[in-house]
Amino acid sequence: MKQWGRRLFVGALLSTMFLLPGNDAEAGIFGNIIHAMIVAGEEEEKSEIIDGLVIVHTGKKRAVLDTAGNVVVPPIYDKIRFDSAGFIHVTDKKQCGVLRADGTVAVPVAYERVGDAKEGRFIVYDKKNDRYGAYDADGHIVVPIEQRELYSYCEGLASVCRSDKTWTFVDLDGRFLPGHYRATGHFSEGLAAVKDDTNRYGYINREGTTVIPCVYAEARPFSDGTAVVRDDTRRYGYIDKTGAQVVPCAYADARDFSGGYAAVLKNHGAIVRPDWGFVDRTGAEVIKPHFYYVDHDFTEDGRAIVSDDRFAYFIDATGTILWPSTYDRMEPYKDGLAAVYNRVGTYSFNAISTMLVGSKWDKIYDDKIYTSIGNDVLKRGYVDAAGKEIISTKNDYVSPFDKNGLSYVMTKGKWGVMDRTGAYVIEPRYERIYPLTEGLFAVRLNDRWGFIDRAGAAIIPPAYDQVVSFGEGAASVCKDGTWHVIDKDGKDILILPDGVTDLGPFAAGLMPVRVGKLWGYMDHAGAFVVAPAYDAADIFRTKERELLPADEDE
Q: Which has the closest alpha carbon to 449: 19, 20, 23, 18?
């Protein structure tokens, strides 16, 4: 039986586990040992992609190179990462700053923290003076670094606590709204919640004019035309943008409207079983509160996910369970299939963990198999719209579907590949398999690597000790300690220098090459564009080479 509090618990992020299927021992994930590493201590932050740039390491320092071999950012920083807006975040001796993609300074390396660009503004924190401010992308201070608190911009305005300890909003040009409040929310749909001197909440518009009086004990951001508010009875309801009460304050908790309905909690407490249901915009309880929890609100397809004390279920807008379930967790349908999970044990760390499928160059990150919720260890499967199991949770491991519509499946310690119908594209007979790139899978059979196509035909028979997936028509392979670069016919296409100890795949016209212990980059003609000089290197990543659909990586 599930404890009532389990799904409400959010665990701390303490460590990350990377499972690399089949390095030295091939086995089922939960029955036997797979090469594993617990990464303790400080983690490198995830880096996004900037076309034409790559991060390299020299000693304990990081640098950035371009595809012409130019040093865009010199190796003087302890950490470097790319953000989604195309900026380079750097850290030197615990001081943070931001560079543009050409290496010029956007935010000086002088702050304890610098947030990612949001609406073209970087929020910075000066630890020495314990003050916040904001820069624009041109390197100008737009909000003086003298604010007690400053939050990210939403709809062109940021919530700020000024030196006199009052709260207001500041626009993108650094102009402050005239009001002074005890607390502020963030702007959403043109309105923001504020708390006045009576400790009551209301809403202001973008000009700072109060449009809904401060009469509430709590007020949340507007979403889809309504906002959740709480009255003095500690009960929640909904108002519209005129301030009219559209759903009475009668619930112990309430969520935003989604798909035309909102989840509401009737009862809760240490000894009271939670009762969740749904209301419509008229306030009618279209689904009477009786569910233990709402795992996911209604989506556009008219389904929501709820749970009782044992399992999770899909329901329709009448509250009818769509099909019988024995799953502990589910996710909304996507392209006709829903991911489902069963709990198979507990994990000894209260941590979010990660399964890694593929090589160090091309990998599928899977952060949903291990969860901090109750320390559960989960196994994934997929079901169709009728609840028919397309891919079973009884497999050792099932990866999320990649952008090619393929799931990498381990069963009885062997790897195969399934499509969205649940049919095996590649039968589970391999000790390892790398994700499909350029029409070929790299596979290991009887301790030898080769390449097969989507029909399972051996294009390059297993004969190598190590391989790297194809990139730009070429693959790096190693046999008897000697590295080669081959084409899809298995023929050598490059003459490599003596002393090559590792290779990566071609990307953006360049291939990482390690000579001795140092990495450089070689072009398709076999010439070094970047001479071997770095202790660690990556490929020049592009969004086209990413393996998961964009929305699954976010």
A: 23
**Which tokens sit at 333?**
């349908």
3-state secondary structure 246-268: EEEEEECEEEEEECCEEEEECCC
Q: Which residues pair with 453 in a beta bridge?
A: 440
CB 445 within 8 A of CB 429: yes
Q: Which residues on neighbouring strands pair with residue 71, listed in sequence order? A: 65
Kindly report the three-state secondary structure assignment for every residue of 435-479: CCECCEEEEEECCEEEEEECCCCEEEEEEECEECCCECCEEEEEE
**Separation in Å, CA 199 to CA 14, 116, 142, 183, 184:** 37, 32, 31, 9, 11
Residues 6+ apart with CB under 8 A from 142: 121, 134, 135, 136, 172, 173, 174
With bands split at pLDDT 50, 70 and 90, how would you rate the model's confidence at 365? low
The size of the chain, in residues, is 554
- Non-local CB neighbours of 420 within 8 Å, separated by 6+ positions: 335, 336, 337, 382, 390, 401, 405
Q: What is the pLDDT of residues 517-535, one digit of tens each?
A: 999 999 999 999 999 999 9
Sequence-ordered list of residues with C-beta below 8 angstroms from that of 231, at least 6 positions apart, any chain: 216, 217, 237, 249
Total Cβ atoms within 10 A of residue 278 = 28
367, 352 in Cβ contact below 8 A?
yes
φ/ψ of 144, rounded to 5, equals -50, 145
In this prediction, residue 40 carries a pLDDT of: 27
Torsion of CA 145, 151, 155, 157, to 10 degrees: -40
Helix (H, G, I), strand (E, B) or coil at 8: helix
Residue 104 CA to residue 88 CA, distance in Å, equals: 10
Tell me the two tokens of residue 326: 């024995």
Whole-number Å distance between alpha carbons of 162 and 62: 37
Nearest to 448 by CA among 470, 426, 466, 475: 466
Confidence of residue 244 (pLDDT cuts 50, 70, 90): very high
- For the chain, the first-to-last Cα distance in angstroms comes to 33
CA distances 467 to 31, 361, 445, Å, are: 27, 11, 12
Distance between CA atoms of 94 and 384, rounded to whole angstroms?
A: 49
Asked whether the beta carbons of 179 and 161 are under 8 A apart, the reply is no
CA-to-CA distance for 497 and 518, rounded, in angstroms?
13
Phi, psi dihedral angles at 9 (to 5 degrees): -85, 135
Q: Which amino acid is at 308?
A: D
Strand order in the sheet with 414-418: 397-398, 407-411, 414-418, 424-430
pTM of the model: 0.86
> How does the average pLDDT of the chain come out, rounded?
88
In contact, 239 and 226? CB cutoff 8 Å: yes
CA distances from 220 to 261, 277, 293, 494, 515 (A): 17, 20, 21, 62, 58
